[in-house]
Design goal:
Chain lengths: 395, 310
C-alpha cells in the first residue's frame, strides 16, 4: 500500500509577502494521499488548509505568495513522479484537470456568468479530449483539418462552424453533436435531470445544488486521479449538502480517484474521510485514521475542536470554544503555536515548534506533552463531550 | 426611471430545441427590451437615429457644395439673413453660409469624430488596462503611473494643448482627443479585470488547465467589459462636446461645417440680435451630447445597476 501513493507533500512552506513582514501561511506541511483514498484536511479559517490545497495545483498567486521550501510530488501512472512545484508551466497545465481537479466552496462564483453551462463544459472537453470528440464525430484526428481541430477545441457555434471555418454541413453537425453528447453525458453522470436543457442555461438560472453538480461535472470531465474539494458544501443548503457529498463519494468509488476534502465541518470527516490531518496556524498538528482521531484525539487542539461541536446534550446557551484566538502568522515566534491557548502548555512548548512524531503505526501528533502524565491524552477522560462524539462515530 | 436595479428579469428557460446561439441572442434581445422600457433611453435612441440618418443621407438632403462639401456654399447676396428668408430655412451667417447646410454636413463630421475617437480609445485603453491587470507587478505599476500622468491634466486643457501644438485642422482634433480619452478606459478595465480575476470561475478555469489567453478571452474580458460599453456610449457624446469646444476656439480649418465652428461664427452676431446661427448649431451639439448621455445612462441602469446614481 505504501508503494501506491498518489500525492506526496513534503515539508511544504508557503509564505505571503505583506507590508508587516512575511505571513507564514503554511509551514513544513507533509502528508501523503494514496490512490482512491479520502483525506480530510481540517482546521479553522486561516489555518492554511486552503493555501495547502491550492498549492497542489500551483494556484497560489506569486507574488504575493511564495513557495519557500518543500515539494509536492505527484505519482503519474506510467510516467513516473512529477514535482509540481518545480514543473514547467506547460507540465502544470497538463496536470490540472487531467490528473488533479478541484471544486470550490461557492458554486455561484465558480461558474462564468456570461457563458452557458454547456459551453463551459464543452471547453473542458475540447481542452483535454479534442481527439475523442473528433473521433466520435467520425473524423480521423490525424487527418482533421485545422479548422476542425479548432472547432473540437473551442466549440464554435454552428454558424461559425459553417461560415467562418467553412466546414461541410454534415461534418459541422456531427462535430456539434459529438460535443453536445459528451457534455450531456457528463452532466447526466452527476444526476442532473434533463441535461440537454440544463446545458443551455446560464449559471444564474440554476440553483446552488445544481451549480455544484455542474462544477463537479466540470472537475471530473477528464477523469482526474485526485479531486480537491475545498469546502464543497459550505455555501449550500443543509438539505442538499448530503446529496452532493454522496455524489462525490459515488463518483470516487466508480472512478477510483482520491479525494482531498478541505473542511471545518467535522461531520463530513466522520462520514466520508478515511484519514484526517488537523491543521493549526500553518502546521499539521495531528494525523491519523479519521475514526481513531475523532474517537481518541491526542493533540489538545483536536480535543478542543471536537469539544466545540454543539451536541444535543449541551445545555442551551453554552457553546464550548477554545479560549484565545489564532496567533498572528507574520513572523511567528519559535514555539508551539497553540501554546498560548493550551491548558497543558509547559516550558518546553515555548522553546521550539514541536515536530510530528509517530505515536502509533498510522498516527502522528505534534505535541511535546504527549505521553507525559498530565498530557491531554490522559486528561481526555475528564472531557465528556468528545467522548460522546466518538461514541456516535462508532455507531 | 422605470427600470431599476430590481427589475433583473432572467431569460425564460429555453426550450430544448433551441441551439446555444439562439439562447445567446434571446438573452441579448432581453437586454434590449429592458433598455427600451425606459422612455428617456428611447428618446435618446430616436435622436441618435435621426442624426445618423441625417449624416448618411446628407447629399440627398442638401446639394453638396463643390469642390469641398464640408465648406458651406456662400450666398453673398444674403448675409446674416434670419431663418426663412430666401430659401435659407435656418438663416445664414455673416459670410452667407447656410446654417441648415452646416448642421447637416456637420453631423457627418461629428459622427466621424466620435466613432474614430471612441473606437480607438476603447481598443487602445482596453489593451493597456488589460496588460496592466493581467500582468500585475511592475508592468502594472508603470502603466498605471503613465495613466495617472494623463489623468492629472484636465482633459479639455490637455486636448487643447495637443491640438494647438499640432496646428489647426479637424484631423488634429481627432488625434488630440484620441490621445486624451484612452486613459479612462485603461483605468476602468484594469479595475474590473482585477475584480473579475479574484472570481472562483477564473481559478476554476485554471484548474482545468486553460491557458492565460483563453481565460482572458472567455472568462475575464466578457465579465469585465460591461462598464466599458456604458463609458463608450457616454463618450460618443462627450467627444463631440469637447471637439466642438476645440473648433469653437478656432482649432479646426476656417469655414468648416463643424458645429463648434458654426457656433463660433455666429457669436459675433449674437449681440446684434442675429441669434440663429449660434443657437441652431449649439442646439445640434446639445442634442447630440444629450442623446448619448440618455442612452448611456439607460444602458448603465440595465447592465450595471450597482453604479446607478454615481
Amino acid at each position: 500500500m505504501s508503494q501506491d501513493w498518489l500525492l506526496k507533500v513534503e515539508n511544504l512552506s508557503v509564505r505571503f509577502q505583506s507590508r508587516g513582514g512575511d505571513a507564514h501561511a503554511v509551514e513544513g506541511v507533509s502528508f501523503e494521499i494514496q490512490r482512491g483514498e479520502t483525506l480530510a484536511l481540517v482546521g479553522e479559517t486561516g489555518c492554511g488548509k486552503s493555501v495547502t490545497a491550492r498549492s497542489i495545483l500551483r494556484l497560489v498567486p506569486e507574488p504575493p505568495g511564495k513557495y519557500v521550501a518543500g515539494s509536492i510530488k505527484l505519482n503519474v501512472e506510467g510516467k513516473g513522479v512529477v514535482d509540481i512545484l518545480s514543473a514547467s508551466t506547460k507540465e502544470v497545465m497538463a496536470i490540472r484537470g487531467e490528473r488533479i481537479s478541484m471544486i470550490f466552496q461557492d458554486p455561484g462564483k465558480a461558474l462564468n456568468p456570461s457563458l452557458t453551462v454547456g459551453s463551459q463544459l464543452a471547453e473542458v472537453f475540447g481542452q483535454h479530449r479534442g481527439e475523442m470528440i473528433l473521433e466520435s464525430a467520425g473524423i480521423d484526428p490525424s487527418k482533421a483539418s485545422r479548422a476542425e481541430k479548432r472547432v473540437a477545441k473551442q466549440r464554435a457555434s454552428f454558424v461559425q462552424l459553417r461560415f467562418f471555418h467553412l466546414t461541410r454541413r454534415s461534418k459541422a453537425a456531427a462535430l456539434q453533436k459529438s460535443i453536445d453528447d459528451a457534455v450531456a453525458r457528463s452532466l447526466a453522470d452527476t444526476g442532473i435531470p434533463n441535461p440537454r436543457k440544463i446545458m443551455k442555461s446560464y449559471p444564474h438560472e440554476l440553483s446552488g445544488g445544481m451549480k455544484q453538480r455542474v462544477m463537479i461535472a466540470q472537475a471530473l470531465a477528464c477523469d482526474p486521479d485526485l479531486l480537491i474539494a475545498d469546502e464543497p458544501t459550505t455555501a449550500l443548503d443543509v438539505t442538499i449538502q448530503a446529496r452532493i457529498l454522496e455524489l462525490i463519494q459515488d463518483m470516487q468509488k466508480r472512478r477510483g480517484m482520491a479525494v482531498l476534502y478541505i473542511t471545518h465541518d467535522l461531520s463530513i470527516v466522520r462520514e466520508f474521510a478515511d484519514r484526517i490531518a488537523v491543521m493549526y496556524a500553518g502546521h499539521i498538528v495531528e494525523t491519523g485514521p479519521a475514526q481513531e482521531v475523532l474517537a481518541n484525539p491526542q493533540h489538545p487542539y483536536t480535543t478542543g475542536l471536537l469539544g466545540a461541536i454543539p451536541h444535543r446534550r449541551t445545555p442551551r446557551g453554552q457553546l464550548a470554544a477554545i479560549p484565545g484566538s489564532v496567533p498572528h502568522l507574520i513572523d511567528p515566534p519559535d514555539q508551539c503555536h497553540f501554546a498560548s491557548r493550551c491548558q497543558w502548555a509547559a516550558e518546553a512548548c515555548r522553546g521550539h515548534v514541536p515536530q510530528l512524531h509517530t505515536i502509533q503505526p498510522n498516527r502522528k501528533v505534534a505535541c511535546f506533552r504527549f505521553g507525559e502524565s498530565e498530557s491531554p491524552s490522559v486528561a481526555k477522560a475528564d472531557m465528556p463531550i468528545p467522548a460522546e462524539i466518538s461514541g456516535e462515530a462508532r455507531r | 426611471m422605470t427600470t431599476g436595479p430590481g427589475s433583473k428579469k432572467t431569460a425564460q428557460s429555453p426550450t430544448p430545441k433551441k441551439s446555444a446561439v439562439t439562447v445567446k441572442w434571446a438573452r441579448r434581445l432581453e437586454v434590449g427590451r429592458e433598455v427600451l422600457r425606459n422612455p428617456l433611453t428611447v428618446i435618446g435612441l430616436t435622436i441618435i437615429f435621426l442624426f445618423l440618418m441625417m449624416a448618411v443621407f446628407a447629399p440627398l438632403l442638401v446639394e453638396p457644395n463643390q469642390p469641398d462639401p464640408y465648406q458651406s456654399p456662400r450666398d453673398w447676396s444674403n448675409i446674416d439673413s434670419p431663418p426663412g428668408v430666401a430659401g435659407h430655412v435656418l438663416g445664414t451667417d455673416s459670410t452667407g453660409g447656410d446654417v441648415l447646410y452646416g448642421i447637416i454636413w456637420g453631423s457627418r463630421l461629428s459622427l466621424q469624430l466620435s466613432v474614430t475617437v471612441v473606437l480607438f480609445t476603447l481598443v487602445f485603453g482596453t489593451m493597456v488596462g488589460s496588460i496592466a491587470a493581467m500582468r500585475g507587478g511592475r508592468i502594472d505599476n508603470l502603466l498605471m503611473r503613465i495613466v495617472d500622468v494623463f489623468l492629472s491634466i484636465p482633459e479639455l486643457i490637455f486636448a487643447l494643448a495637443i491640438a494647438a501644438v499640432l496646428g489647426p485642422s479637424f484631423s488634429n482634433i481627432i488625434l488630440a482627443l484620441a490621445a486624451v480619452f484612452w486613459v479612462k478606459y485603461a483605468r476602468i478595465i484594469r479595475g474590473e479585470i482585477i475584480k473579475v480575476k479574484q472570481a472562483d470561475y477564473v481559478a476554476a478555469a485554471r484548474v482545468v488547465g486553460d491557458s492565460t489567453w483563453n481565460i482572458y478571452r472567455k472568462d475575464v474580458l466578457p465579465n469585465a467589459a460591461t462598464p466599458l460599453i456604458v463609458q463608450a456610449t457616454l463618450d460618443m457624446g462627450n467627444v463631440v462636446l469637447i471637439g466642438a469646444t476645440l473648433s469653437f476656439i478656432g482649432l479646426a480649418q476656417a469655414g468648416l461645417t463643424e458645429w463648434g465652428a458654426l457656433v463660433s461664427a455666429g457669436q459675433s452676431g449674437l449681440l446684434a440680435g442675429e441669434w440663429w446661427v449660434s443657437t441652431f448649431a449649439g442646439l445640434a451639439i446639445v442634442l447630440w451630447a444629450l442623446a448619448f448621455n440618455l442612452v448611456g445612462d439607460g444602458l448603465r441602469d440595465v447592465l450595471d445597476p450597482k453604479t446607478e446614481g454615481r
